[in-house]
Amino acid sequence: MEKFAAIVLDVAMIKGMTFEDLPSDWPTRPLSDASIAADVVDLVVRDSDRATGCLSILLCDDSLRMIQPISITDTDIVGPEPGEYQRPFDLVVGQFAERLGGVVVAIGRPLGHEPDDEARARHEAAIAGCREHGVPLLGTYPATARAVTEMPRWDQQSLLATG
What whole-number distance in Å separates Cα of residue 129 and Cα of residue 46? Predict the structure, then answer.
């Protein structure tokens, strides 16, 4: 019985994060709200991109509303060389840093519902890249066919102050 309850709870948590639950005014809401951000990630990261792996950087304005998602697809096929995980953040975040209020990072993965080594490496690169360019990282969300979850957050003020 206990195992059944755990499975039901897991399904309930997974069903709790879906773009179908987004409020109609979601484009006006800040992605600093983790529940809105997770649902927007679910909307932006297509199933086909989750299947082949992707990295999406959701650019946000000063009000922390999404203004543009940028996706790099087929990351499981190509994948970065060791030490190259920060390159997309340097290119994208660095290019637009002066015009951004923050970014949300989505990591499309084909399997699982918990962060793997690839997701952790991309999350660390997002933290470093955002800190280096002075842009707040609002959250990092692995997105698989099973779930969209949020990776641990750190205090952005302390990250920016040490950078």
Answer: 25
- Kind of pairing, strands 66-73 and 54-60? antiparallel
CA distances from 53 to 60, 73, 87 (A): 23, 6, 17
Determine the pLDDT at residue 16: 45
Q: Tokens 């927007």 sit at which residue?
A: 40
Please tell me the pTM assigned to this model: 0.81
Calpha distance 148→162 (Å, rounded): 30
* 3-state DSSP assignment of residue 11: helix
The set of residues, in sequence order, having a beta carbon less than 8 Å from that of 45 and lying 6+ positions away, is 54, 56, 71, 106, 108, 143, 148
Task: Kindly state the tokens that stand for 64.
Answer: 């922390």
